[in-house]
From TrEMBL:
<dbReference type="InterPro" id="IPR028973">
    <property type="entry name" value="PhnB-like"/>
</dbReference>
<protein>
    <submittedName>
        <fullName>PhnB protein</fullName>
    </submittedName>
</protein>
<feature type="domain" description="PhnB-like">
    <location>
        <begin position="2"/>
        <end position="136"/>
    </location>
</feature>
<dbReference type="InterPro" id="IPR029068">
    <property type="entry name" value="Glyas_Bleomycin-R_OHBP_Dase"/>
</dbReference>
<dbReference type="Pfam" id="PF06983">
    <property type="entry name" value="3-dmu-9_3-mt"/>
</dbReference>
Length: 147
């Protein structure tokens, strides 16, 4: 079994995909626009703003070895990403700093990048879309404080 995150960007999915391409090297492997699907029901039409036909119905991105699904959703307001974070394991301290700085542009640092007892670098940031990220370079053997 595999769990795959699915993010709803409320009308900003394509912008988010371009951001993740430039900051994380994401690759869009599948993209379907609203106009590419079957004719929606009247109920669905009523929930979508006019001009939504070019919005993204479903998208699959590869970020490193991970898959993330995304959509514009119903395009009815600002996305509300609460209660979770996506975690990026960086290969080096320099890579972690680069990723963290890139995700921070237009976003909000929640915990500045620093050394911890479990990581040579760790920080938390909400990107410009409100998605929360944890960037980490884990230590092979965490330093466990004496009891």
């Amino acid at each position: 079994m595999q769990v795959t995150p699915y993010l709803f960007f409320d009308g900003r999915c394509e912008e988010a995909a371009n951001f993740y391409r430039s900051t994380l090297g994401a690759e869009v492997v599948m993209l379907m626009r609203m106009k590419d699907g079957p004719e929606p029901s009247e109920e669905c039409k009523a929930q979508m703003p006019a001009g939504s036909e070019n919005k993204i119905m479903h998208m699959t991105m590869r970020i490193g070895e991970s898959t993330v699904h995304a959509s514009d959703g119903r395009c009815q307001g600002k996305p509300d990403f609460k209660g979770f974070s996506l975690s990026l394991n960086a290969s080096s301290d320099a890579e972690a700093e680069r990723l963290f700085a890139a995700l921070s542009k237009g976003g909000q640092v929640q915990m500045p990048m620093d050394k911890t007892f479990y990581a040579s670098r760790f920080g938390m940031v909400a990107d410009q879309f409100g998605v929360s990220w944890m960037v980490i370079v884990p230590l092979e053997k965490p330093i466990v404080p004496a009891a």
